[in-house]
Amino acid sequence: MTLEPQTRSQRGVYGISVMSELSGVGPQTLRLYERRGLLTPTRTGGGTRRYSESDLETLRRITELIDDGVNLVGVRLILSLEAENSSLAARIAQLSESADDQA
Length: 103
Prior knowledge:
Order of helices and strands: HHHEEHH
Largest sheet: 2 strands, antiparallel
Distance between the termini: 38 Å
Strand order of the largest sheet: 1-2
Strand content: under 5%
Oligomer: single chain
C-alpha cells in the first residue's frame, strides 16, 4: 500500500533534532514558531513532535520571510494569505473544469 504524495508530504517523520539539523533552525526557535502558530507538527501518542516535508517547506518560507525583514506576526499573516490564495486558485480551477465539462 502506497500513500498519496500529498499525504506522504504531510506525514510527520522528523523529530525536532532532525528538523533542526535539516533546516538550520534551532529547536528553541522551532518551539517558538509552534507557539506562534507558524508550524503545527503532528504529535505522537507520547506527545513527541513529528515534522513533515510540508513543515520543512513552510519552515523554509518562514526563514525566507524573516531574512527579508518580516516579523513573526507578519509571517503568520503572509502564510495565511498564501494558503488562502492557493485554496482559491484550486477552487477556480475546479470550477473552470466543471464549466468546461458542461459546455
